[in-house]
Amino acid sequence: MRAIKTIIFSAIILMLAGCSNNTKKVDKFAIDCDAIRGFNYTPASVAAPRHHTDSWVKYNEQTTVFDMDLAKELDLNMARVFVNYQAYQELGDAELARRLQHFCHVCEERGIGVIPVVGNGAWVRDTTQRDLAVEWAEFLVNTLKDEPALAMWDIHNEPDSNNPERRAMNFSNCRFLSELFHKLDPNTPVTIGAMLVNGMIELADYADILQFHDYSETREGIKANIQAAREFANKVGKPVFNGELGCIARANPYDVTLEEHQKAGMGWVIWELMIVREGWGNVHGVFYEDGTVRDPSIYTAIKGHFRNRKNIRLEEPDAEGKVTSVLNRIAAWKASSSNDFDRGANLAEVAANLLESAQLAPMHIAPLYEVAQVRETRDLKELSSLLDKYSAMLEPYKRQQ
Description:
- The protein is α/β, with parallel strands linked by helices and about 400 residues long.
- It has helices spanning about 1-15, 50-55, 60-75, 85-90, 95-110, 130-145, 165-185, 195-200, 220-235, 255-265, 295-300, 320-335, 340-355, 365-375, 380-395; strands at about 35-40, 80, 115, 155, 190-195, 210-215, 240-245, 270.
């Protein structure tokens, strides 16, 4: 069923792409949000605290193409991307428009919809400056309303703050921007990236498509929030999806939360596609900027394949005597007080291969990474310590004779 829905969603994007001015456009309000398989996106190279501004000020077309190819490889179909007012101020309307349209064209070519998060300006805390918000909204609508990839406007990210005063200002901004975007672009639905399901419920009147974020730390919590969001969405007759999920530091593993969302048929948008160099890259992300991954379980979970946590068949790394063999060779190398660095490094690599392939070592700092580092330094003392470490880790798995 998920595959069918994904095909339907991709078809909508392609149909939109094929529309001419003389052809009736697809109704964006009819989007199947259950089919959303999305990602929040920031290029890996931009740094805190200007991530969302420099995504556009330092925009790189080649990087966009490369990163969106990675997204396509994972069959992802929606990009949620922040567009800050500050970028508009720094770049000017013509240049920012060109960059936004390039991004949308790259996404369109890959069957990826776009959800711009329109960012906040001074008008959020000072209503006398709402004329700036009108200028900003007019620019965004004029720039993107005819882009086939444009799926919806996200008018405020996580306005449901715990601070009562800020919350009231944010909600007022949501109401104002909702009316403004509906007036300027009645053909594109509005969503609001609520931090919690309860916030989503409170803001429902201002959104055509409901959105909640969830970083729950248990499966039961994830399931409960999906159910609560679904029940309310059904009650008010509006589509719903999860616009942010997946965080190492919040006990919200990607493979766990994605499994629960996919089982429930709830559309989702991970935070985030790229592992940024500075900022949240230490707790979020699928790809490094060269296309490698930090944790393959995230990649496979997006593809719909999950780690077996029920009926496990344990690996037996010494089934063919390889653990015993390498332990004996390491002991002989150390006993000889060998200065043959390359031979010792090769033994470390064999041990690391056994540790990694049999899942006997934490991958936070992968054994093969450690081997590569010691090959760089060519430090015999460091190599000897690494061999001692790997021998101790492998010893319990030596098959009894």
